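User: Some background: our group keeps a shared notebook of sequences we're curious about, and every so often someone picks one and asks for a predicted structure to add to the entry. Today it's my turn. The entry only has the sequence so far, pasted here. Could you supply the structure so I can complete it?
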Amino acid sequence: MPISSRGSAVLTVAAARRIALGAQGFATARPSAPPTRRTLAKVLDNTKLLQIDSVSAVVRAHYAPVFSRIGAYDRALLDEMSWSDSARRPRKLVEYWAHEAALLPVQDWPLMRWRMVKYRHGRWAGLGRHRDEKLADEVLSVVREFGPSTAGEIEKHLELDRPRAKDNWGWNYSETKVVCEQLFASGELSVPKRVGFQRHYDLTERVLPAEVCGRELDEADAIRELVRRAASAHGIGTETDLRDYYRLSRVQTEPVIAELLAAGELEQVTVEGWDKPAYLHATARVPRRITGAALLCPFDPLIFFRARTERLFDFHYRIEIYTPEHKRVHGYYVFPFLLDGEIVGRVDLRADRTTGVLRVPGAFAEPGRGMTYVASELAAALREMADWLELDTLEVGDRGDLAPALRRELSPRLRV
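Assistant: Of course. Here's the predicted structure to add to the notebook entry:
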């Protein structure tokens, strides 16, 4: 339903939620045919980016949002779009610091040039750490001569055996790895491939097309485009929401929002219960209803800004990876469960690839949800995930009020 047909600048939270879900692709029917690169590209049209994270408790974070929206697909398709390049099938995605580490469309890389200038000495230059220019020149020379290389391979070529950094900002990286990351942040190196999820660095001009590398944008123009993309990905959002999507600042976003309002690309509206104005994208629609189920990775673009998640879904969510085990409330790697447009529960998940088991140490329903229906739909979603990950069985633990009902639903597939 077009927004204009509502005839009101005041929206309910339920309407805002449906707008947000529609903008992220959850109002679109799943494909009936096996997904193709084109199918995955349509997902990226909605999300604009896929966050990358090293945790592999279930599946790497960038794979999961695609599965949540289209169901089972061949992960090699996303690998090919991200880390393969040929005349017949050119690279479609590239790594850079967008929300956090993320895959974004190759054509969007120039929108980050202003950030590359800011990150000349790396993301943590503000802490007083400047890159070793001599070592940086040596790293670039090695990569220029030998092609895509890991930091460890570069160190071997340089015959270096330097101690690892002791301070927290360095994440215990070697000096060579720190410089590689600084050169990546500054845009001088890019990532043509990953092997075992380890970055291989190469000169950016050998990774991206010349027209992309050569495209220059003023910071103001780049920020305007990023806010446009964030507004499209949200459908509706506050200034804080739009700012967070690409990790912008208020100083950057507020003037752009004013411009987009004046141009009619955004409309300021009120969402009942929100304490800040909301901005509606001109092409946003209000789906009449959202149906279906999806398991949401902790780094899914729909929920990675926790304050927005709480406003939209009345769902308080914190990732507990870094919380000591005895202090965790829900578990190590917890997937919120989206059902018919609302988050109705959450499950702690672990993929045990050695034994072929998708483990569910804990399952929790949100207050007021019907246990039987939620458990039935969650069981189906977990079966689909297990099949996609090529895991033979499911194993449900004892934690959580939803666990008994889920165990009953899954009993035919449970390991005894």
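Suggested note for the entry: The chain has a mean pLDDT of 93. Residues 81 and 92 are 5 Å apart (CA to CA).
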